[in-house]
Amino acid sequence: MAGQFGYVLHPVLEFAPDLAPFYAQQEIVDLLAEILQDEVRLAHSGAILCNETRRFCDWHCHLNGNQFNQWYPKPENHQGVDRLLCNVYLHGSNSATGELLVYPRKVTDPWEMPFDDPLIEWQGQKIITCPPGSAVIFDTALFHAARRPTETGHRYIWGGHYQGKSNLTNHREDNWFQSPFIEQYRKNNPLFASLTDVRIPSFS
Ligand SMILES: [Fe+2]
């Protein structure tokens, strides 16, 4: 993440296990299942904590590859969604927090970056605004960035990556954290248990 003050917490369940039940939201999981056409598994948990000194967050996507913003070539005739990202914007997405920017494209479009410079705004981008507490869901192939905040204060975004349970392809960003707290949440919350019963180790 670009910026002066910013922490990326991966896996966030290690630092904040109390987030566990917040992943188990039936309405969200149902929507993810409909898009993935499969039962859903949580493949990655993460969060970002930053303040107003954060600079423009570079354009990037979360396709699979062995390095940041690098990915394996798009398979021929690939037209689906393999993996979804769902982030919760605790303070919303607006000019004060620095808006989320996305570069829309079809699932049938190539994966290549449409512009060379990841540090400037791109022609054709869309500005996403949402109120505090919003969950934003998108294909991990979607290029996204964020503007610099205009007001002081800390900002938190937390979320995860989701794949179908029958899609066992591992990903550079897969993560898991085992702890007694997490096991207790799994015992008490069947939906969280279902989201986390298939764990694929990252290949990196
Ligand atoms: Fe991202």
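^ fe (ii) ion complex. The chain has five helices and nine strands. The radius of gyration is 17 Å.
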